[in-house]
Amino acid sequence: MAIQESPRTRSDSLSLRAFRTRGRPAVISGIGGYAPERILYNDDLADLGCRVDDEWIVKRTGIRSRHVADPGTAAFELAIPAAQRALEDAEVLPSELDMIICATTSPDGPFPAMACRVQDKIGAPGVMAFDVLAACSGFLYALAIAESQIASGRADTVLVVGAEVMTRFLDWKHHFVSILPGDGAGAAVVRAADGPGILSWCRGADGRGWDQITYGKVEKGAYAVGEFGSLEMKGTEVFKFAVDILPRLATAAADAAGIEVDDIDLWVPHQANSRIIEAAAERAGVPLSRMMMNLDRYANTSAASIPLALRDAVDQGRVTGGDKVLLAAFGAGLTWASCLVEWT
């Protein structure tokens, strides 16, 4: 049966779906992050065949360096230290977990799930473990599942991990794309609580934009074995989509929580590109000082970017008890999600 292509539309033609959380409150009780030791600065990319210099990259992306895993490094190897640090931060033992959810765009293979490898390495046998693929929105999709399980009483403590080795997908000569990704992992422990925590959600996707960010050649509904190619992106279209969707995600989540966008103390957006974040802040009428950015050091780590940025925000003292924190992401698919948290 032939698949009928839908016309492309801007995100402002979509009605975003947002709601306030119900049931038992869930809080983020611990955050952990990890990045490989090897750092590539922009000027180092010339040795790999990249044809643009540091000034060009910084001006267009805000990225100055990125962490890069050694060849052959598995994504789960980055996930493990991030998960362990999140457990330590939350003062939670692996035996106390009810569920492990990993989000990744760069799995080490079609199966087994990365979550099962993490479960094995941290010592939590018997815990439900599975992966989520929603590209750069993946961590928030996984966090949404964790929150819903806690809200329903089916889980009390959930480990959520975002881990990526995105640089394995790159052809460094394709500088419009290869300058953007970095490798890393971030994790959060989510627990049931008595008071405020995760307040609201806005989540969705528009498959009509599936071809705007891709990896691999899709032929007759299946990947052509041995012809995966490299990461590809329609930069102009993605930029327009991202700048449009981020403010709308903030408004939707704030409305659902019963607050104003101006009441949000800190935005932690997906760390894709500084120009996207700056343009979204301007469109939303929000001071850039309320935007958390660490992409200058990590680049775009896809599903790991939000927990890595949140970990840095906590370390820098930018988040304190009672603050309203917005987590917002967009990614290939096209997918999106936002989450409003009252920090405890």
Written overview of the protein:
With 344 residues, the chain is an alpha+beta fold. The protein is built from 9 helices and 16 strands. It is 29% helix and 25% strand. A 5-stranded mixed β-sheet has the order 1-9-16-15-14, with helices on both faces. Strands 2-8-7-5-6 form a 5-stranded mixed β-sheet, sandwiched between helices. It has a two-stranded antiparallel ribbon with strand order 3-4. Strand 11 and strand 12 form a beta hairpin.
Order of helices and strands: EEEHEHEHEHEHEEEEEEHEHHHEE
Rounded mean pLDDT is: 92
CATH architectural arrangement of the largest domain: 3-Layer(aba) Sandwich
- Poorly predicted spans: 1-10
Q: What distance lies between the first and last C-alpha atoms, to the nearest angstrom?
A: 52 Å
Kindly report the CATH topology of the largest domain: Peroxisomal Thiolase, Chain A, domain 1
Which term fits the overall shape? globular
Q: In what order do the strands lie side by side in the largest sheet?
A: 1-9-16-15-14
Rg result: 19 Å
Estimate the strand proportion. Answer: 15-25%
The CATH class designation of the largest domain is Alpha Beta
Structural class: alpha+beta
The number of distinct helices, counting runs of at least 4 residues, comes to 9
Main β-sheet: number of strands, strand sense, barrel status? Answer: 5 strands, mixed
